[in-house]
Amino acid sequence: MLATLNDVLIPARKGRYAVGLFNAVNIELARGIIAAAEETGSPVIVGTAEVLFPYCPLEEVSYYLIPMAKKAKVPVVVHLDHGLRKETCLKALELGFTSVMYDCSSEPYEINVEKVKEMAYTAHSYGASIEAELGHVGDNPGSAEGSTDLKDIEKFYTDPEQAADFVKKTNVDALAVAVGTAHGMYKFPPKLDFERIHAISERVQIPLVLHGGSGLSSEDFKKAIAKGISKINIFTDINIAAVEAEFSAFDHMDKGIIDLIPAAVNAVKAAVERKIEVFGSAGKGKRTEAWQEEIVRLVAEEIRKEFDIRKK
After folding, report:
1. Contact indicator for 73, 42 with CB cutoff of 8 Å
2. Which residues are catalytic?
3. Which domain holds residue 67?
4. Is pLDDT at 146 greater than 60 in this prediction?
């Protein structure tokens, strides 16, 4: 079933587990991700990012992801990750994506606020959710996301007090925070600022997002979730799992693409299942009347809390 970030992340925040976002730039990745979610009974977030459009354009992603999400036995959010331009986010919403991330994190603070606030109004008018980023999560050299050389990295970390101000002014549904992760595969183990995650979580009433999750240890994930992370982005891990499986399957030159497809799907499924187990979301996406009533109650509760905060 199609869902928004609010449908899956508000319960995750309350229940102290996380829901994974897994980018799916082809059908094999999408099949593996959704199969893992259904097998484990977990909600899941699938999508793509603007920097991945050269590998599969946004429209083509929408052609398979949205129908697959609608037919899924668990809640599936179809999400645009790191939309860098207003036009990209609008196009995703028009195509039927149920969530967008408008990434203006490289802009000065006030411009970030202004642009995201406008997009939040638009996304909500479509019935979609919106994620933003405050601080800046950089890229590891050679990653699929690109490459960003950030010196004195802590200058780019999210400030807890500014995060509270940002959420209040923009009305976003989820906030990606910069706390020591980077996109792509790590050459050295990252050092996460867990106390910063906790401090931000104490000051904002919306789910927090950890970008650059591939390569972190299970202990890092669990501690980050305990401190307040509700959504974790994964791409490199499943990207590598798929290609390693295809290389292993291609042991003779008489093989064709149909011999490789099952290997990729099964490898992605296994990799996603492992993440779901670590994130604690297994069994949290069952489609029952009680589940739907609980989602409505939790969303209404969070809206009331936010309204009370804004009145102060």
Report:
1. no
2. 81
3. 2-311
4. no
Q: Which residue has better confidence, 136 or 138? A: 136
CA distance 110 to 38: 41
CA-wise closest residue to 134 among 110, 161, 168, 157: 157
| 86-110 mean pLDDT | 97
CB-CB neighbours of 51 under 10 Å: 16
CA distance 49 to 167: 22
Length of the chain: 312
Q: Which residue has the higher pLDDT, 93 or 187?
A: 93
Count of structural domains within the chain: 1
Please give the pLDDT value at position 92. Answer: 98
User: DSSP letter string over 274-303?
Assistant: HHHHHHT-TTS----HHHHHHHHHHHHHHH
> 10: Cβ–Cβ under 8 A, 6 or more apart, which residues?
207, 295, 298, 299, 302
Q: What pTM was computed for the model? A: 0.86
d(C-alpha 76, C-alpha 69), whole Å: 5
CATH (domain of 261) = 3.20.20.70
Strand segments (E) across 135-237: 174-177, 208-210, 229-234
